[in-house]
Amino acid sequence: MARRPFGERVKVWDGAVRLVHWGIVVTFGVSWWSISNGRMDIHLPAGYTMMALVLFRILWGFVGSDTARFSRFVRGPAAVLGYARTMLKPRGSGTLIGHNPLGALSVLALLGLLLAQVLLGLFAVDTDGIESGPLAHLVSFDTGRLASWLHGLGFDALRIVAAIHILAVLYYLVVKRNDLIGPMITGIKRLPITTRRPVRMVSPWIAAVLFAVVAGLVWLLVTHPPR
């Protein structure tokens, strides 16, 4: 009996990538809600959680599983342009393992903006100087206000990039018949035998230890800031 063209179930995303992805989605939503409702008591912990997630994901991009590593999915301009030409085709690109070249740009943009956002938040100062980031005392009031303004500007930029990201995922689902959401939940993607190749997965225990170290350092930074 002939095999179905996409009958092979292959694990393409490790648990660390998936948990960080959805963790960022949740913390971004909580951060948005909390700042909109003046709940700095929630906004600050959400920001610290986001910082730990982003820093971990950046480190995991160098030491993590194959599909998590920047070296495996970040490509040059020629590859990006070549892939962009296939975007108008109704089908295709479903055989790629991991992020495609355009998706890589989205990952880098989101991680870069999120990192800048949490770092600016550490130094941000509100108008009366009461609700400020844990490192605001290290900079002048004017510098802290500038950080706060850039923090707000970064939030607007993040909403735009996130919206583009969501629209792209929906485009892949509806037009190209390529579900990117399911694999980011289960870690599994169906691939044809002709394109399947082993994906090396790093132990989840290594991810857990690394995240614990990163989270611990973030906790120390915000609870015992330098004077």
UniProtKB/TrEMBL annotation:
Domain Cytochrome b561 bacterial/Ni-hydrogenase: 12-187
Entries under SUPFAM superfamilies matching the protein: Transmembrane di-heme cytochromes
Origin species: Stella humosa
Protein name: Cytochrome b
Keywords: Cell membrane, Membrane, Transmembrane, Transmembrane helix
Predominant localisation class: membrane
Domain of life of the organism encoding this protein: Bacteria
PANTHER family cross-referenced by the UniProt entry: BLL0597 PROTEIN (PTHR30485:SF2), NI/FE-HYDROGENASE 1 B-TYPE CYTOCHROME SUBUNIT (PTHR30485)
Record localization: Cell membrane
Entry keyword Membrane: yes
Keyword flag Membrane: yes
A single BP term in Gene Ontology: respiratory electron transport chain
Cellular component GO terms, alphabetical: plasma membrane
GO molecular function terms listed in the Swiss-Prot or TrEMBL record: electron transfer activity; heme binding
Membrane topology recorded in Swiss-Prot or TrEMBL: Multi-pass membrane protein
Segments passing through the bilayer: 12-33, 45-63, 102-125, 157-175, 202-222
